[in-house]
Amino acid sequence: MARTYAEKTIKLLFGAARRCAFPGCDVALVFEDRGLLTVVAEIAHIRSEKARGPRYDSTYPSKLINSPENLLLLCGPHHKPVDDHASAYPVDELLSWKARQVEDGIRRDVSEQDVLRIVKHYELNQLGHEGFEKVCQALAARMFGPDEDPKRRRPRSRPYDAAFDGRAAEYPSVEAPWDGFIIVEAFFRYDSLNGAGRTADLTHRITRRFEFWFDADARHKRPDYVVFATNNSLAVTRDRGRSVASLLDHYARKYDLKAVELWDEGRITQLLDLYPEVHEAVHAMTASHVLLGNLLEPRTSSS
Length: 303
Description:
The protein is α/β, with parallel strands linked by helices. The protein contains ten helices and eight strands. The protein has helices spanning 7-16, 76-84, 91-104, 112-126, 128-143, 195-213, 238-254, 265-274, 276-285, 290-301; strands at 30-33, 36-39, 41-45, 71-75, 162-167, 179-187, 225-230, 259-263. The strands form three sheets. Strands 5-6-7-8 form a four-stranded mixed β-sheet. A hairpin with a 2-residue loop joins strand 1 and strand 2 (36-39). The chain is elongated and about 60 Å long. The relative contact order is 0.13.
């Protein structure tokens, strides 16, 4: 089951620390640029809630598993080894990291808006492949219109995660919506590759999708508009963001597409702010997929 964190817990964690707790690491926990907040930290459990998890302690109270005293803020590259090699990173050492992180951190006021954005960040990362795909489908249904496949299944003959054919309901605006065949492809990552690794993986997957969609022998319908969605953020390093943008521009020109967009973690969070009914479903989905399924069903059955 996906983990959820109380807003008070998020506020205490991010209000007390600025940087990754791993000794010598200077990576900031939150990236702020152009008035936008992007969470680049990951929440690590000092003691796992699972019997076979890292540093599991059967005597530790279950009600404290997701409490601030059992949570540690790390950057992505340091979270994975800490959990993968738990014997090398015992509880006492992680507790000392936490104490030093708080001491070294510059305390700051975390606004309610900041808390909500951080919570949404963790919701996206907890959804898994299927859940993230459904979130993208729900946003597409809200902005574009009903998907042409009401069953939301992806047989081999359907090489995309969501599709709409016609005049979009309100994207990118009500006054000038997209008009044509729109497809959405969702890319979800569980692991903790560093920024360069995530970008390289994303560009590789984008390239493979375009090669498949526009293969000379392909029989499926070719898109006029393409949206790639990812739960990762490209805001941390502008050079990486530009490299992905350049790749999308290249394929847009090569295949004469009307528009190609990337929705990264920051962009999806913005869209969830615009469509609170979808965000409510995302929040519930960290415990159950039922609500989001109910949200999608009325929109798709009307096609």
